[in-house]
């Protein structure tokens, strides 16, 4: 293979040019691909309960897509559960008054414009759907099933029991929906699955008048107009490296790549029984049940195995408690603060299982056999002999014999492929965290403010941690790219 050197940057001659490279094939990347494939949203003319929004939408020239309009103007004055104005705009149009408990029809219609297609590729580690493909399929979504939808295709759940109480859906049905969506919307040609991105670097380049990259030593023109980024990685399916040169790169990796660690001795030394994800825990719990049944030889007895230690106070930890209780296994639940209320965002009539767990946490376990809550405790050490040392708020230390440890204290994105020293978060001195320190993006284009030109972020990386808000970031990016390309053409 022969490389071209462009001001110190080596570019292999088999590199592929794309206008846009999207890193992440979850619902964020899928929604953006749908838009870049030339599918555009239009206001359908229906009256929205927000009269001012209806007025702004009605004032646009006839036949003009939202992609072509002033998103700052359309988004003004909107409020909701996202900090990104275009996300609020698209959610308001897709699910009018959803936070008031209303189920009103969408004010959007989608039209396909093949002439507006943007050359792009979506890179993902696994099949389309991203982290949804790796979750425990039996768990129910927090959001309503209708809020899990991508543009233009109603979520019907596919095969199997998709819907449960009050319109929630199983994770397995959502994962299948995202996988099928890519194929039904003819997007598969834009997806390269089974890929790990290892490096994303800005190109330090010169341009000819035509916009091609110029090798300063030989004068050889290389690649396509205005290439700005080099994206490299490894294809797990064919075992070979890949390299893309692009003008724009979009970060859509989500929040679930790297589980958070406790950072205590022994946590990483015992990977077979110290676990950090719900799916691995479910498999470990099933093994415990099988071992118990073998020991009992068909004679019903009280649980004989040591407790399952669950660390964390969020919804994943609650799912772990539910899974262990379903199997009648003893539980030791450790969390750092007092058990708080779930609040109005998770009403009890829709999420009774989570309210039950929080009731147990507040009770301390006194009223629940085989469950003990250690509020205001933290883990100090995990020993190889299945002993765990914990300390309470009174500094009293206790040691517990356990069978399995599940550390479920959230996750963070894996952005190790970015250049060293590139700090993208709202607080530049801290790592990106999708909840407390998302990527600092321009609110109407989703360009990464602290990155070189041509980098964008959407979805959880931009602070939108619910699928219902993802379309807004995708619209912001697609609109900005369209307007830039249109301006360039002029």
Structure notes:
With 490 residues, this protein is α/β, with parallel strands linked by helices. Helices cover 22% and strands 23% of the residues. It is built from nine helices and 25 strands. It has helices at 27-36, 51-58, 71-75, 85-94, 171-184, 278-296, 315-326, 352-363, 470-489, and strands at residues 3-6, 9-12, 16-23, 39-43, 108-112, 120-123, 140-144, 168-170, 191-192, 195-202, 213-214, 221-222, 229-235, 240-251, 258-259, 274-275, 308-311, 331-335, 371-375, 377-382, 387-392, 397-401, 404-407, 411-412, 455-457. The strands form eight sheets. Strands 3, 6, 9, 10, 13, 14 and 25 form a seven-stranded mixed beta sheet that branches. Strands 16-23-17-18-19 form a five-stranded parallel beta sheet, with helices on one face. Helix 8 links the parallel strand 18 (331-335) and strand 19 (371-375). Helix 1 runs parallel beside helix 9 (470-489), helix 4 crosses helix 9 (470-489) and helix 6 runs parallel beside helix 7. The longest helix is centred in the last third of the chain and has 20 residues, at 470-489. Mean pLDDT is 87; it is low at 1-8, 158-165 and 206-225.
């Amino acid at each position: 293979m022969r490389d071209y050197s462009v001001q110190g940057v080596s570019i292999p001659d088999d590199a592929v040019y794309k206008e846009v490279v999207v890193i992440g094939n979850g619902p964020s990347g899928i929604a953006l691909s749908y838009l870049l494939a030339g599918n555009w949203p239009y206001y359908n003319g229906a009256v929205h309960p927000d009269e001012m929004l209806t007025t702004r939408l009605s004032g646009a020239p006839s036949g003009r897509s939202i992609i072509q309009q002033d998103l700052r103007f359309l988004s003004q004055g909107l409020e909701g559960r996202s900090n990104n104005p275009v996300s609020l705009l698209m959610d308001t149009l897709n699910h009018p008054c959803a936070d008031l408990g209303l189920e009103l029809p969408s004010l959007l219609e989608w039209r396909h414009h093949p002439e507006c297609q943007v050359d792009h590729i979506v890179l993902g580690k696994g099949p389309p759907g991203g982290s949804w493909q790796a979750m425990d399929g039996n768990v129910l979504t927090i959001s309503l099933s209708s809020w899990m939808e991508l543009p233009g295709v109603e979520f019907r759940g596919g095969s199997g029991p998709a819907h449960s109480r009050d319109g929630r859906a199983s994770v397995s049905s959502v994962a299948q929906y995202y996988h099928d969506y890519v194929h039904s919307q003819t997007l598969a040609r834009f997806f390269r699955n089974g890929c790990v991105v290892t490096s994303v670097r800005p190109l330090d380049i010169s341009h000819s008048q035509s916009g091609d990259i110029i090798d300063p030593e030989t004068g050889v023109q290389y690649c396509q107009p205005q290439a700005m980024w080099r994206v490299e990685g490894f294809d797990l399916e064919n075992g070979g490296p890949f390299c893309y040169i692009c003008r724009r790169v979009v970060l859509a990796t989500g929040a679930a790549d790297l589980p958070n660690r406790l950072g205590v001795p022994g946590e990483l030394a015992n990977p077979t029984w110290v676990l950090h994800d719900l799916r691995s825990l479910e498999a470990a719990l099933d093994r415990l049940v099988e071992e118990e049944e073998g020991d009992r030889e068909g004679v019903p007895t009280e649980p004989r195995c040591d407790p399952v230690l669950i660390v964390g106070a969020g919804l994943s930890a609650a799912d772990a408690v539910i899974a262990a209780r379903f199997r009648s296994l003893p539980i030791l639940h450790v969390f750092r603060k007092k058990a708080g209320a779930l609040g109005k965002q998770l009403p009890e009539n829709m999420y009774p299982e989570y309210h039950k767990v929080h009731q147990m946490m507040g009770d301390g376990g006194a009223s629940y056999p085989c469950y003990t809550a250690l509020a205001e405790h933290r883990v100090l050490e995990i020993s190889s002999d299945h002993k765990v040392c914990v300390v309470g708020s009174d500094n009293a230390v206790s040691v517990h014999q356990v069978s399995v440890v599940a550390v479920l204290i959230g996750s963070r994105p894996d952005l190790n492929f970015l250049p060293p020293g590139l700090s993208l978060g709202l607080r530049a001195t801290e790592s990106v965290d999708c909840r407390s320190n998302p990527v600092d993006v321009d609110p109407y284009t989703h360009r990464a403010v602290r990155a070189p030109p041509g980098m964008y972020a959407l979805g959880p990386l931009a602070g939108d941690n619910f699928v219902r808000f993802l379309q807004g970031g995708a619209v912001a990016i697609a609109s900005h790219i369209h307007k830039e390309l249109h301006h360039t053409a002029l």
